Amino acid sequence: MKRVLGAFIILLVTVSCNNSSSQEKNDKFTDWALKNSQKIETLEVTEKQDDLKLLKQIVGKAEVVCLGESRHDIHEQFQLKHRFIKYLVEEMNFTTFILEASFPYSNKINDYILNGNGNIDEIMSNMPGWFLWDTQEMTKILNWLKDFNQNPKNEKKVNFYGIDIVAPNNAIDQIFEYLQKVDKTYYGNIQGKNFARNIIEDNQWQTSLQHYSELGEEEKQILIKNYNELFQQIKENEKRYIGNSTESEYNWILKLSYSANEANKMFTETDRIKMGLIRDNAMANIALWINERNEKLIIWAHNVHIAKSEFTMNMFPENRIQGMGYILHQELKDKMISIGASFNQGVFQNENITFEPAEENTIDGTLAKLKRKYFLLDLKGKSENKEVEKWLNTDKVIQAQGFEMTCIPKRSFDAIFFTNNISKVNYNPTTLEKLRN
After folding, report:
1. Which CATH number is associated with domain 168-279?
2. Where in the chain is the domain with CATH 3.40.1660.10?
3. What is the pLDDT of residues 410-430, one digit of tens each?
4. Cα separation of 250 and 233, whole Å?
């Protein structure tokens, strides 16, 4: 009996010590995170921005700031990013807003925020590729940018670009219109060529993927040949085409032909990983093109697109993915900052979806222990504690859009913004009807 009792006491002591050790690790990280973070007081856009001062420290002299998101449909993350954009524009002189949206279509949004042309509700509801940006939250951001640009006190105006390639029909429309002006002979010659325009669905690019998957290999090769020849034709006739238009027009059309060519490559690819890499490489290429022509960029995209280091997704656990953020970081180095997004729990009432509290050992679950509604955490803050450094520099899971992303926090992101509870974005009426159908 004494031996049993002794063993039981040893077991209790061992468990107690392990729990104590685990608690100590958690306390050390929490202490470090509290010292290196700033509580965000409100989600509402306000003139008082003292609660975002840490953002200036994190960004420093960087000329490209990437703002991530856990999902494309979180109301609170949209609101916080609106505040970040306002701060970066007003306090740090950022002049270019880039969205993970259709590159070809973005000139319409740019014309609206710069010149007030068009109806924003119509522009947003007709946005190809990702109609999911047609929300009240995004409309407020674009209207704020328009108001900023129209204020005569603001000499530096903010430009808008998309970087996504998934709506090539929109690009082909602009390319053909341009060719009619600068090269009618070539325009006439390609009218009978196949560019898969009848099977590309710009408003829902997953449908385009489905249609491409039903094509035979011979037809796919014809499409690859036709798109590549179109790109090369425009590339090789620079001087002649500029002579019949302007340099800025030509550069825009050249990049449109590049984006359409890459979209076709993506749609004809059957391997999901390769397909995603074609898209991310193209978005990085377009972002760098924009960077050459503009000052101080804000890039809004999903966490997986802005991660500066390799990561994995739980549906492809063996593939270390080097996405857009990785490519940009290789080129831009310290000129680029990536700020990831994290959340704990929430409910999408209209969709009857519940997000249970994040698991304890994930990035989301660990940050939830700070017991703050919203905050910004600087991951670059140094720590003398080995456990804190270990947490920052080893693979951790973070919630994403229907999947889990595994990354090294400190290598993938310079900072993380956190919202404890989340709810669904508010779609504008036209898109809400699309979603219902």
Report:
1. 1.20.1440
2. 33-164+297-436
3. 999 999 999 999 999 999 988
4. 12
